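Case study.
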Amino acid sequence: MIEVKDLYFTYPAGVEALRGITLTIDDGEFLAIMGQNGAGKTTLVKQFNGLLKPTKGEVVVDGVSTREMSVAQLARKVGFVFQNPDHQLFCETVEEEIAFALRNFGFEENAIKKRVDWALNLLDVMQYRKTSPFMLSGGERKRVALASVLAWDPHVVILDEPTIGQDHQQKEKLRQFIVQLNAQKKTVVVVTHDVEFVAECNPRVVLMSGGKIVAEGLAEEILTNPKLVAQASIVPPQITQIFLGLPDFGLPTNVIDVHEARRILLDLLEGSS
Amino acid sequence: MSMFEGFRFRRVSSSIHRLDPRVKFFFVCVLFVMAILFNKLLAIIVLFFVPLPFVLIAGVKREWLRSMRGATFFAIFIFVVNFVFGYFYPGTIQGISPPIDTLSEYFIILEKSLALTLRFFVLVASFSVFFLTTSPDHLGLALEQSHVPYEFCFAFTTAVRFVPVLADEAQTIMDAQKARGLELERGNFLKRVRNYIPILIPLIVGAIRRSLELAEAMESRAWGASEKRTNLYVLKLKKGDYILAFGSVLMLIFAVYVWLSVPIPSLTALLRL
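After joint prediction, the assembly is written out as follows.
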């Protein structure tokens, strides 16, 4: 469990990025942190694995304050997949890349081999195990980066802007994969401003603006509230915009799911005919 | 990374910022020459105070201090290397006849090491003031108006402009690798050096990729199509520039005079240690 207690954070240059954040993330929860650029989303999640330490307040991971643990200790529990895979890939082959963190954490060579195979299969990159990560496409590099984090099986997986630079098919694969991870009781935290992606995943949403949490709740409550989303400089999902734009038809305004929208529209059409 | 912060231009309105970059560069070069001319601690202490009024007038005290803090690691390294070298090869230091057997001889080695360390601080301090108060655009303009070929000016200003970008990227890469359990400060000296490989490779690959993208972007915007370039802004020397240039020349003449004809005593001799 991650508990954030009245967290304030100011960067050395003097920018106050987080102002009084209080938040609890339960084990096995799926959470999306949303907001415009500069809202403090990435700064907040960097507190979870100790990359940044609170200026004021406290972040507690599994009962221990992040101030009392090193990044390496926290990283064993909290895996962090960075936005740009090119910021972490450096090995000659994909399998070495995946084994890198396992060696850092002191796994035995036998266990490393097994976990590398497992991660390669999981992310469907087995065919590239001897390939240089630099020779792969953007989507494949992203998968390798994800595999290199999941290989050590952290309890919490943080994904920073996972959908950036991904085509629709890759996005859908990623969505299915995240849902699958969450189904395996992993705590998943996604930092994004991709409303369509969040609408399809339907996690708990924390909406941030100006270093503060402005709202939290189910995706269908938050993303269908025009005032709230405007406050965080994002727009509701397209399907919600359609429903919000047809107030005279008595349609519900809290629809974010395409399949549900289709069913409601079919009912409406059948009723009118 | 804090050292790079101390070289990043700060857009502040001050009389130092408004000075002609050519004159400022001349002043910094004079300081550089003076720091190299003198190797006595007393002279270098005096030199250290020369750029301070510029820092205060320019209002960049905090950033300048950051560059000083960033330089501390290298300064300690310089001090230790010189002290150890002086101790084992005392014959290279004036005023010591090996073997070292008196306390004052230790003080001479200490003074010499301190002088070379402080010389490094003087160089960092003066160049920090220059880069903190001179925008890359003005720097490029100054080079162009000094008849340096435009290709070189462009390469130089681009390099200067990308230093902070690379510093930011290096920080992100460090975070990404720390999140995979890399402990930069772990192990002996050689291991610590090796720990930086996962940082350097993505950084270099990223820099090459970025430079290729920049080259394509520049060429697609007709870079180099025009033989004769004109500038919107033209640098003109003003009263303040003439005063600084004249002051710098006087300072240089005085320094050369002192260097040639005034023997500067060592602190050890003055204090009769």
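Observations recorded in class. The mean pLDDT of chain B is 86. The CA atoms of residues 12 and 59 of chain B lie 8 Å apart. We will return to this complex in the next lecture.
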